[in-house]
Amino acid sequence: MSSFKLVGLAGSYNRPSKTFALIDHVATLASEKYGFEKRLYDLTDVGPSLGQAQRQGDLDAAAAAVLADVVEADAIVIGSPTYKGSYPGMFKHFIDLIDPQQLRAKPILITATGGGDRHALMVEHQLRPLFGFFMAHTLPTAVYASDRDFTDYAVSSDALKERIGFAVEELSAFFPLNELAAAE
């Protein structure tokens, strides 16, 4: 098992979810390529204590464990559904509970889903500045997927798969030795 951990977080409560399917697809490819230990979560895994929490210490054990996995990850795949041009409030609230130093210098691959193309810049106008505040390394290639990129909650678009491949390749700047080890 790899000593490096990749955590995927989908900012959605829905199950099944295209956002979760997207982070699962991305995280699986990255884990296969670099040998990461992979863990995936959505807001349902965080649970109901999130809405009442004003600080990390207010989270129940399940939510605290998810938050700990996110901040202790070596690499993170973030996925957010797009609502009215931005990320959902409870997703932002979860991120607000993280101390900025906890994500400093971490590679983060940002993704988002939405109903159509008019939300495509959400990754650049909402997610990239959010994680820039945390001084994280958002990878240059962000991934946006619309409803037409999925079939039965699975990534099916060749163009989307190609873009995901570009983004996953960018992790090699942070994990070049893992890439060599995974190839052996």
Task: Sum this structure up briefly.
Residues 5-148 form the NADPH-dependent FMN reductase-like domain. With 184 residues, the chain is of the alpha/beta class.
Describe this structure in words.
- It is built from seven helices and eight strands, in the order βαβααβαβαββββαα.
- It is of the alpha/beta class.
- It has a single domain, classed as Rossmann fold (3-Layer(aba) Sandwich), CATH 3.40.50.
- 40% of the residues lie in helices and 20% in strands.
Keywords:
single chain; about 180 residues; alpha/beta; Rossmann fold; 6-stranded parallel sheet; two-stranded antiparallel sheet
What is this structure's SSE topology?
Layout: E1 5-10, H1 18-34, E2 37-42, H2 43-46, H3 61-72, E3 75-81, H4 89-96, E4 107-114, H5 122-133, E5 137-138, E6 143-146, E7 150-151, E8 154-155, H6 158-169, H7 176-183
Parallel strand pairs: 1-2, 1-3, 3-4, 4-5, 4-6
Antiparallel strand pairs: 7-8
Poorly predicted regions? none
CATH architecture, by name, is 3-Layer(aba) Sandwich
What coarse outline follows from CA principal-axis ratios? globular
Helix content: 25-40%
Count the DSSP helices: 7
Helix vs. strand class: alpha/beta
Oligomer: single chain
**How does the major sheet shape up?**
6 strands, parallel
Strand content: 15-25%
Number of domains: 1
CATH class: Alpha Beta
- Total count of strands: 8
Q: Name the CATH superfamily classification.
A: Flavodoxin domain
Question: What distance lies between the first and last C-alpha atoms, to the nearest angstrom?
Answer: 14 Å
H-E order: EHEHHEHEHEEEEHH
CATH topology: Rossmann fold
Mean pLDDT: 94
Radius of gyration: 15 Å
Protein name: FMN reductase
Keywords: Flavoprotein, FMN, Oxidoreductase
Pfam family, one: FMN_red
Family: Belongs to the SsuE family.
